[in-house]
Write a structure and sequence with these properties.
The protein has about 230 residues and is of the alpha+beta class. About 40% of the residues lie in helices and about 20% in strands. A five-stranded antiparallel β-sheet has the order 5-6-7-8-9, with helices on one face. Strands 3-4-10 form a three-stranded antiparallel β-sheet.
């Protein structure tokens, strides 16, 4: 039966209008659903489920994409610093030859085959040397000449610098002059039986205005440059 929504009169199921008040009748909620209606309702539910699944998949894709981007940024961070490290490594490699040149040694060998190393240090400011640096520079050249020319004597070593006396003074041009004498009281000179009563002068040296080491004669222009880079034994 169809109950009129207006007056409440019970009408026959096939009636579309109320026999009592003439109001349009609607399907009763208690009436069983037709096949078409059931199919339509089921289709709507299926569509809702499909839309929900698609929405969940899209959300998961967005989440995974965000995680992938964050992970990519973290993995790029160490790589971004690697070029700086390589640049530093390359800059150190470029400086290495200069350091090697600074620490290279010149060898003065005697006929016996023994060598005495002289360390060349081109980075030292030869125009502003200390007294000790001047003496070491002069001794490096004396040692090389001695070991080359006195092959029948024991070779000089860096530890034998006290075998010579270095007297420094300044000439009229402002150059540092160095008078070098043999110290016959030293252990080395005693080992070669030098006269203990004498201290002969073996040479004159100077540091000129350009910072070069020269050998020559005081009070004259007869000076020969023997070294431009600083040396120590």
């Amino acid at each position: 039966m169809k109950k009129c929504p207006q007056c409440g009169f019970e009408n026959q199921p096939h009636n579309q209008f109320c026999k009592q008040c003439g109001a349009k009748l609607t399907a009763d909620e208690d009436q069983p659903m037709t096949r078409e209606a059931a199919k339509e309702k089921s289709s709507k539910r299926k569509r809702k489920v499909i839309y929900l699944v698609i929405a969940i998949i899209l959300i998961l894709i967005l989440v995974l994409f965000g995680i992938a981007q964050a992970t990519g940024k973290q993995s790029k961070s160490p790589a971004s610093t690697s070029p700086k490290t390589e640049k530093k490594a390359s800059s150190v490699a470029k400086k290495a030859p200069a350091t090697t040149a600074a620490s290279s040694t010149a060898a003065a060998s005697a006929s016996s085959g023994r060598q005495t190393a002289i360390q060349t240090m081109p980075d030292v400011n030869t125009k502003n040397l200390t007294t000790q640096q001047v003496n070491k520079w002069v001794y490096a050249n004396i040692m090389a000449d001695w070991n080359k020319n006195n092959t029948d004597e024991p070779p000089l070593t860096p530890a034998d610098q006290d075998a010579f006396i270095f007297n420094q003074s300044t000439d009229d041009q402002g150059c540092v002059e160095i008078q070098v004498q043999e110290n016959h009281q030293s252990a080395f000179m005693k080992s070669i039986h030098a006269d203990p009563e004498s201290t002969p002068t073996i040479g004159w040296y100077r540091i000129n205005a350009q910072g070069y080491l020269q050998q020559g004669t005081p009070g004259s222009d007869n000076w020969n440059t023997i070294a431009q880079n600083y040396q120590e034994p």
